[in-house]
Amino acid sequence: MNIVRVEVLVASPDRNFVTLRLTTDDGLVGLGDGTLNGRELAVASYLQDHVAPLLLNRDAHRIEDTWQYLYRGAYWRRGPVTMAAIAAVDVALWDIKAQAAGMPLYQLLGGASRNGARAYGHASGRDIPELFDSIRAHQAQGYKAIRIQTGVPGLGTVYGVASSPTVGQQRYDYEPARRTALPVEEQWDTPAYLRHVPTVFEAVRNEFGPELTLLHDGHHRMTPIQAAKLGKSLEPYDLFWLEDCTPGENQEALRLVRQHTTTPLAIGEVFNSVWDYQTLISEQLIDYVRSAVTHTGGISGLRKILDYAAQYQIKSGIHGPTDISPVGMAAALHLDIAIHNFGIQEYMRHGDATNQVFRQSFTFTDGYLHPGEQPGLGVTYDDQAAAAHPYQSAYLPVNRLLDGTVHDW
Length: 409
Hints:
The chain has 409 residues and is an alpha/beta fold. The protein contains 13 helices and 18 strands.
């Protein structure tokens, strides 16, 4: 079963997505997600100009061999562009293999380890009343685990707080990226944030009680000692996790955080290989792996990381905002259902235009996701719907401290 057609599809329904479509000589079609938020065209070029010629006439069944061929054969290993491109190929090949077997993909990964994958959503507000409204709206949708983000007094736009669209402009699918020629610049004040966040969680617990599962994302903005301080101050509110409390590239920095707080830690949405996690996992400095299938070399790449993590009782928390396409989301769900060390799945709902381009079989019911029982991934791509949404330039913001210094975003 050889690959006879390789297509790189770029469309912007609600936001930009890069999709790889592989067709075999017996007519099977597989989809992979290669979206890299704000750098989509770099992955599209990598796939079109450097990967596509290597795939023609390759045996579609040889998934691991193809993964190693693209990873080791390029010499320049790792990095988000390379690993997103490999992920797109890997997921498309798994899609094809599962269709050839006539099974949903999770069956080829060992079958179901659970009946559904518990999901969390994103509630936010510029102030406490607005946050409460967002939490109630998510509860009404069925979420029983909710990430909490709020504005910070004295600051303007803050990451993670959903904002209304500018008059006359379409909102960029619920994320802080904007369809602009240059990135928007935001301001940040860590001391103000550290003073404010504990009061937010106190208010949420007082309003919604102890049963609601709460999460929070620090988005790399703290030093290790600041992160340790925040983790300790949030202990009374029993968080499921504190995410990206400090930049994880300095893996040893998490030793200090771990020494000072029992708040569970999640890291890794910007990581793209097992090497980014080596110290974090072996020294048990985190509790949850946050990488996306789309950014870590696909199902094959992320499965390797999660199998390593399982040896240390570290669980999954796969990245799943709207900058992961429904193809990448479906791949995550098949992995969620199959692995033993599942923790929780991030899930932001895509907009209507995206759902028209990507027709999905996965479902969300009573707080749980399931990939469905269609053979393969369970996602198809509508070319006609996609044609109405050409690529548009869009960037994530740039963050600056009050004195103008560029800061972690």
